[in-house]
Amino acid sequence: MDKLESIKLFVRATQLGSFTAVSEEKGVTQSAVSKKIAALEKSLGFPLLHRTSRQQHLTQSGAKYLRFAETLLQDMSEIESELFDEQSTPRGRLKITAPIAFGEHYLGELIASFSTQYPEIQLELELSDSMSDIVLNDVDIAIRANVLPDSNFKSRHLFDNQVTYVASPDYLARKGTPLHPQEVEHHDCLVYSLSNQYRYQWHFVEKGESISIPIQSNIQVNNASVLKQLALADQGVVALPHWMVSDELAAQKLQQVLKPFTHSVLPMYLLYKNTPYVPSRIRVFIDFLVEQMEDFSAR
């Protein structure tokens, strides 16, 4: 029995929740996964998992062994990476996730530049507005546009999104231009459905005091680019980062409203796993992106 391989399969089975999911990921049969974990249990002398026809649960001993196994694999990965990095240039697979609109606007050019500098790093960029599980999906770096909660991950602040409220000239001609935040209650508000902070209320500043106004919307979308398209199609007022609408504002396809009351920012962070050792392929990308983002908030 390859005990190390069996330990890896056991840990991954607890992460994915089933032997079937592990077998599909590894390209082996579910029976092969089950046999290797059973052999590990036999060698240990105690069961790791309670199995039923539909699900599996850790035994008390299995939960303790899982903590040991995760630490073992993490320590092994770190020392191997550290020793390898001492003798090589940055290389290997680097998986990054980022919001769709940000990736469409800027990451293509940046990643092309990074790839030219580090040709031995294989980049995998996943654009999604959903908060995917960094550990479960084996993500190295996640770029997140949100207020950062208490987290088990390390983070670097990239820049602050300046929230801008905009609508098309035709919509404003039809509905009127709101002159005070309270007036948005009487407008068609286009809402980003994945943001708890801006889904049910919008945020303004009046006389130095923060105010939040409840909003109503017939259209909620989980993609910021589509929200901009709806605003351009005269469907209502929308709150978007300034960099997303700066070209349309300059071309007068959109107009900013409530500017004297608009001082809200939404920070953009880079997240990565909180481990004592960070592989060089991750370190160099973090340093590259932070340097590129130094003047981003001014855009």
TrEMBL record:
SUPFAM superfamilies: Periplasmic binding protein-like II, Winged helix' DNA-binding domain
Gene Ontology molecular function: DNA binding; DNA-binding transcription factor activity
Keywords (A to Z) from UniProt: DNA-binding, Transcription, Transcription regulation
Presence of the UniProt keyword Transcription in the record: yes
Residue intervals of the HTH lysR-type domain: 1-59
Pfam families assigned: HTH_1 (PF00126), LysR_substrate (PF03466)
PROSITE patterns per UniProt: HTH_LYSR
Entry coiled-coil feature ranges: none
Keyword Disulfide bond assigned: no
Domain of life: Bacteria
Family: Belongs to the LysR transcriptional regulatory family.
PANTHER family documented for this protein: HTH-TYPE TRANSCRIPTIONAL ACTIVATOR TTDR-RELATED (PTHR30537:SF5), HTH-TYPE TRANSCRIPTIONAL REGULATOR (PTHR30537)
Name of this chain's protein: LysR family transcriptional regulator
Record organism: Vibrio comitans NBRC 102076
